[in-house]
Design brief:
about 350 residues, alpha/beta, five-stranded parallel beta sheet, four-stranded antiparallel beta sheet, 13 helices, 9 strands, globular
Length: about 350
């Protein structure tokens, strides 16, 4: 109920090709008794004295963590401070350093320090102080007027008085949650035009995301990606015209389908790929996502379409790495193609 969790990452370069990596997770909990230090890594085992009714859990978290660490060639250790907390450390030795630049650097790095929202007011709403500070630090340089609230009730009161241009609203908070707060603001003519962006650690795809967007104007997944954050802020507070940009993208996509997709591929996409797409969006099952990715790859190879091969490969990578945020973006991009195919059959 009090305290927190601190994550520390330490890298020690061995040479130009390899490095050692340590990831430490320190909590301020109740600690672990010495005679239970190994037992807690066993399936369905939880330490004695933990209030299951209050905190829940199945006793699988550390088992899964150890297996994942070992599967990647690492190990996990624990140090104990009774009544003061515990420190778990994941150690990866002699990791090969990547020679491939990330997409961010390959496609041109965006310097967020150069972005300005002068004249705008942004209200940050989160019950966790560290989360509020993170966003305040990220946006301090933008020139925007920054306000903060600790729960939904405070947010409604401040927004009604100050009328900010945009609210970054945590969805789960005490006193009043973000969903209710945003509804109240949208129902009030005085505040109905304020842009509300919901923030949550839960990824929503398909119907759940659609329901959320009936209340919020947009969503951000925690931990917050600065790339996504500034993209949304630019979208709603920036000066460039997204309407013409969207029109350009749709025009390019239409030309691509018309020129590069054979009639046989369009028919196959409509008969086979589209139903499978609707299926994975409905079930959200990772094994079905992986199977769908392979189906896209096979279709791309069969009909000579590099775009489908690329989509399939990325989906398989996302499933393998459990990169749900990137997977969500890819599925949304793919949706544009299927909507076009569906509407032209």
């Amino acid at each position: 109920a009090e305290g927190g969790v601190t994550i520390t990452i330490h890298q020690e370069e061995i040479d130009e090709q390899k490095a050692n990596l340590e990831i430490s997770i320190r909590d301020t909990g109740i600690g672990i008794a010495q005679d239970q230090m190994e037992d807690i890594f066993q399936p369905f085992v939880q330490q004695k004295g933990q209030t299951l009714k209050a905190y829940g859990g199945t006793g699988l978290g550390l088992t899964i963590s150890r297996r994942m660490a070992e599967a990647m060639g690492g190990e996990i250790t624990v140090k104990n401070n009774p009544d003061r907390g515990s420190t778990f450390t994941i150690i990866f030795s002699e990791i090969e350093l990547s020679k491939v630049l990330s997409d961010k650097y390959r496609n041109g790095f965006v310097d967020y320090e150069e972005i300005r929202f002068k004249g705008s007011t942004i209200l940050i709403v989160d019950d966790i102080e560290d989360n509020r500070k993170l966003l305040l630090d990220a946006l301090e340089h933008t020139g925007a007027r920054l306000l903060v609230a600790e729960d939904g009730l405070q947010a409604v009161q401040i927004a009604t008085k100050e009328i900010p241009n945009l609210i970054l609203m945590d969805k789960r908070m005490p006193v009043m949650d973000g969903m209710k707060a945003c509804k109240l603001l949208k129902e009030n003519p005085k505040t109905s035009n304020i842009i509300c962006i919901g923030m949550s650690a839960t990824l929503l795809i398909g119907k759940l995301e659609s329901d959320s967007l009936k209340v919020f104007d947009d969503n951000l997944v925690k931990p917050i990606s600065f790339e996504k954050l500034f993209a949304l802020l630019n979208k709603y507070l920036g000066s460039y015209h997204h309407t013409s940009e969207c029109a350009r993208i749709m025009k390019e996509m239409t030309e691509e389908v018309d020129q590069d997709w054979s009639d046989e591929l369009k028919q196959y996409a409509n008969d086979v790929l589209l139903p499978k797409y609707h299926r994975v969006m409905s079930t959200q099952l990772m094994d079905e996502m992986e199977e769908f990715g392979k189906k896209l790859e096979d279709a791309g190879q069969q009909y000579g379409n590099n775009k489908l091969i690329e989509f399939g490969t990325i989906i398989e990578e996302c499933v393998e790495q459990f990169d749900v945020e990137r997977l969500s973006r890819i599925l949304k991009d793919l949706n544009h193609y299927f909507v076009f195919i569906e509407n032209h059959n």
